[in-house]
Amino acid sequence: MAAPLPIAAHREEIIARLRAEQVLIVVGETGSGKTTQLCQYALDDGLCAPGRMVAVSQPRRIAAIAAARRVAEERGCAVGGEVSYTVRFDDTVSASTRIRYLTDGSLLREALDSPRLERYSLVIMDEAHERSINTDVLFGLLRRLLRSGARPDLRVVVASATLDVRKFAHFFDDCAAVHVPGRAHPVAIFHAAPPPRAPDCDGRARAGRVEGAAAEGRYVEDAVELCMRLHRSRPVGPSEDVLIFLTGAREIALACAALEQLAAADAARGAAHALRVLPLHAGLPTDAQARVFSPTSAAERKVVVATNLAETSLTIDGIRCVIDCGYAKVQRYDCARGMELLSTEPISKAAARQRAGRAGRTRAGECFRLYSEEAFARGWPDHGEPEIARAALPSVALSLKCMGVRDLLAFDLLDPPPRRALLRALSDLHAIGALDDQGVPTELGARIVRLPVEPRLGAALAKAAELGCVDEVATIAAMLSGEDVFLRAPHANAAGTAGGAEAGGATADGGGWARARARLAPGGAACGAAGAEVDVREADQLLLLALYAEYARTPPAAIVSWAAECGVQLRAMHAARDVRAQLVALVASSGLAARAAPAPCDEPLGRRVRRALCAGFFAHAVRRVGTGGDACVPLAVLAGASLGEGGVGTTSVLLRPLAHSAAVLNGAHALIYHELVWTTCAQMRCICRVESSWLDEPLRRLRAAVDPLVLAGARPAPDAGADADGVAGASGGGARARCTDARHEQRLDATPWQVPDADARVRAARERYLKRRKAEESGRVKSQAA
Fold first, then answer.
1. Do 231 and 378 lie in a common domain?
2. Compositional bias (Low complexity) spans (predicted)?
3. Cα 709 to the chain's mean position, in Å?
4. Residue 64 has pLDDT above 50, yes or no
5. Which residues pair with 365 in a beta bridge?
6. Mean pLDDT, residues 775-782
7. Both 170 and 302 in a single domain?
8. Calpha distance 311→632 (Å, rounded)
């Protein structure tokens, strides 16, 4: 019989505190049993009222599924009975469910319909230290609910392996905390040697704050080399496995491919012990993720190559050695430029301790850190930055508004989001019509908040319902909302060696787009859906639509070879299929389709799709500079839209499309883009031709900017029918608040199509651009002559 988990010794204390108080913090080290036992204690000791459930929120779907399966096994029931889980596209809850594991996003969506969470007697917020944006919002909603007195019977447990107890306790009105020790063995820590010191220009020695790009570029190779040295020199046994932490799917695929190649070479030379290499990251299918838990034979060693998913969300038994690269992929929203940036950054000291602790689960272990002790002490932060401090916020802002939060700037969160990012999000929501001039959700906003896509895509789907092209726009939205569907050609073979498209080993590049364009529409026309042709030269999004149509027509027996031939990630296509079906169903159930007028039958499908996309992304409209170049100017800037606090403008005056979009750019006058990406400059991803008449009214709305503080609820709106100076509003859409930033008050009477030559900033930028192009061409001519 297995030894009792450490949390068992604290069962009576935990139950007694929950009977006396509404909130309890449980800090349990990895392996203490908090994830699987707390909910069972609450149910078995009568803390769950009849007809209600215990909710256990997890930031990751794999953790929710794995924990539900484990608890169901312990209680001798099937998943879907007393114990169930709810993740995106998979809900096993039944009438008999009493313990429900679910992702934080699922719980947040449920709070839209039931703000008082009436279905639950206890909510356990597990892995609280990860501070996902959904988890932080849920903390704020739970605090507000408990303080309101509307649910005196509700209990909340905040559980984590590592968190700032004082901060969380203060947030929940000085609640109690219980500390549960883990069942860990000692772990020896080994650091890499520090890099050579380089003198500054004044002769003083310096060491980098972190070990920078040089170390960052080596760690995959170093991890593979170290792993093979350990494998060749250590015995193989039931607790002799290796866990390698890398930053992303592509790195994992490359490392897995290298390890398998080296292990195969060893086997050819007669090595006695085999190596089983398994990737682990969030993009893998559930069954592929579950393989890391499978036991190994006596003659093989398991090597799991993982992202930070394996830090605390999952416990993999048998790990003796951990190899930690010390970095993680972090996504940041650059509010000034209006783009998402994905960077590789050092992990926190708390995360490093968690990674090391994975080696001491079943016996004394070792952790090999591929960074120096000096860099760890000086350059690694103590705790990770919460997602809400670095993410785009339109979806969060709309969700909170629809849940009745009037003043978003005053809404209590553990860490307030950046003020500018929040006000920018509110301005974006107002521009697409999701909020009215007072910051109250409109009928459109109340409907699109239930769609699992960003609000701009939600607005596009609403317009698609009106134009009769929901299926097509839902397809595009699904393919743009997930991971890139195209494999990066130079690494496709490496990804395939590590599990092909299912390993998630590649990212998109122009080669995949070009191949798809040549394959599907060599002359421009392609089959979009239901046999209707679309011209893919009009929009990159229409090329994605044509690609999906071919995927849907391909027989299941031929789908793997089709994906290899097209250079696409099959997993990404399957995910898009699931999201598409969900979006179509949600649009139908939300009432958007019922409100739609009959679609004009004589309008081509491609044009209707482009009109729908323009309804959501008109703030991303650009106009080409000149006739032969690829530089474009944002029309929101030309139209005089606000660039101040919360404004919709971008600091990038000149933008260019990615190279694979040249066919769409040629002959285009005005375009919209899906998003900006950063290469060596800001570049537009997924561009779409639009007509100037589609932009006139939306850009007028951008010029008539409403004070974002009014939208936030932090400043009262002026009296209806008049602005702050008593002048009647000219827009006809209600009173407009006067903005305090002088830049907000710039208004241009000319249409966007007449502005460029009248705007000094754009004229100067265009002159600089043309001068630079001329110098570059002159340099090329001279080099060719030489």
1. yes
2. 717-728
3. 27
4. yes
5. 187
6. 56
7. no
8. 44
For residue 297, being part of any structural domain is answered with: yes
H helical segments located in 325-469: 349-357, 373-379, 394-402, 419-431, 443-448, 455-467
Q: Which residue has the tokens 């999952």?
A: 314
Residues 242 and 101 in one domain: no
Q: Which two tokens stand for residue 589?
A: 């159930």
Rounded to 10 deg, the angle between the 605-617 and 455-467 helix axes is: 140
Count the residues in the chain.
Answer: 786
Co-location of 235 and 98 in the same domain: no
Which phi and psi angles does 526 have, rounded to 5°? -145, 160
Per-residue pLDDT reduced to its tens digit, 642-662: 434 444 444 455 788 887 788
Judge contact between 197 and 207, C-beta under 8 A: yes
Residue 720 lies in a domain: no
The reported pLDDT for the residue numbered 649 is: 44
Q: For residue 780, what pLDDT is reported?
A: 52
Burial degree of 396 (CB within 10 A; 0-12, 13-18, 19+): buried
| β-strands 23-28, 155-160 pairing | parallel
> Which tokens belong to 286?
């559930």
Count how many domains the chain has: 2
Does 556 reside within a domain? no
Q: Based on the fold, state whether residues 41 and 89 are members of the same structural domain.
A: yes
267 found inside a domain: yes
Distance CA 508, CA 438 (A): 41
Residue whose entry in the numeric block shows the structure tokens 């604290």 = 10
Can you give the residue range of the structural domain that contains 255? 187-198+206-385
- Is a pLDDT exceeding 70 seen at residue 360? yes
Beta strands in 485-584, from DSSP E residues, in sequence order: 525-529, 532-535
Do 117 and 36 lie in one domain? The reply is yes
Q: Using pLDDT thresholds of 50, 70 and 90, give the confidence band for residue 768.
A: low
Q: Reading across the β-sheet that carries 23-28, which strands appear in turn? A: 90-91, 83-87, 99-103, 53-58, 120-125, 155-160, 23-28, 176-180
Question: Domain ends where: 331, 352, 385?
Answer: 385
Q: The domain that contains 151 carries what CATH number?
A: 3.40.50.300
Residue 289 shares a structural domain with residue 233: yes
Q: Are residues 152 and 21 in the same domain?
A: yes
Q: DSSP readout, 77-141? A: --BTTTEEEEETTEE---TT--EEEEEHHHHHHHHHH-TT-TTEEEEEE-SGGG--HHHHHHHHH
Tell me: pLDDT of 598 over 70: no
Q: Are 381 and 349 in contact (CB under 8 A)?
A: yes
> pLDDT for 466-518, tens place per residue?
999 999 999 999 999 888 888 764 333 333 333 333 333 333 445 678 888 88
Q: What's the confidence (pLDDT) of residue 646?
A: 46
Cut 0.70: pTM above it: yes
Measured from the Cβ of residue 576, the count of other Cβ atoms closer than 10 Å reads 25
Query: What would the two tokens of residue 586 be?
Result: 């949600």
